[in-house]
Amino acid sequence: VDGIEVLYRSQIYLMMNKPAGYVCANEDRDPTVFDLFEQFEGKDLFTVGRLDKDTEGLLLITNDGEYAHKLTSPKHHVEKEYYVTLQKPFDSSYIAQIEKGIRINEEEQCAPAKCIVEDDYHVRLIIREGKFHQVKRMIHACENETEHLVRLRIGNLWLDETLEAGEYREMTDEELVLSLDREDE
Question: What pTM was computed for the model?
Fold first, then answer.
C-alpha cells in the first residue's frame, strides 16, 4: 500500500508481562491490559485465561479461540506455574494436601498440584486447572496468605525475562508449540 509492504495475519499470538493494577478484560471500569497496547487495535484480541488485578507475569493474548481453548480447558491439563510470596513462613506439612488435592472450601477441592518450597516465604505452585483465585485460595487453605503472585509459565512456555512489566511482543512459532506442550505426553 503506497509502496509499503503490508503482511496480513489472520491469527495473532502475543506474550505479555502483565503488571499489577490491570484487569484481564477488554473493557472495565479499572485499567485493562489492553490499555497498554499501542498496536493491534481492532483485532478482536482477548486474554488466554485471566490473572487477578494484583497478579503479575505471563499472560498470553490472541484472537485464536481454538488455541485459547487448548490452553484453558480443564480436559487438556496444561500446567501453569506460579511464584508465590507468602505473608508468613510456609508450613511444609501442607505439601501432602496440595499434592493430593487440597480442599479450598466446603464445596471445592483442587486437583492435585505440585508445591516446591523455595524458602520460608516463597513457594512455587504448579496447577493444571484454573479455579477463581485458585492459588490464593490454596495458600489460604494452608493457613497463610499471598503477598505477591507471579505466573512464570504456561505449558513449557516461560515468561520472557527481558519483557518489563507492561511490555508485550509477538510469540515465535517455537513458543506456540511450547505453550501447548505438556509434560505428561
Answer: 0.90
Please give the sequence-ordered ranges of beta strands (E in DSSP) within the chain, or none if there are none. Answer: 13-18, 46-47, 56-62, 80-86, 114-119, 122-127, 146-154, 157-158, 168-170
Q: What are phi and psi of 8, to 5 degrees?
A: -95, 135
Contact 47, 24 (CB under 8 A): yes
Give the number of other Cβ atoms within 10 Å of residue 119's Cβ. 9
Is-catalytic flag, 52? yes
Residue 72 — left, alpha, or beta (φ > 0 → left; ψ -120 to 50 → alpha)?
Answer: alpha
Please give the average pLDDT of every successive group of 10 residues along the chain, which has 185 residues.
66 96 92 85 83 96 94 88 98 96 93 97 95 94 97 96 96 90 57
Among the listed residues 2, 30, 52, 64, the single catalytic one is: 52
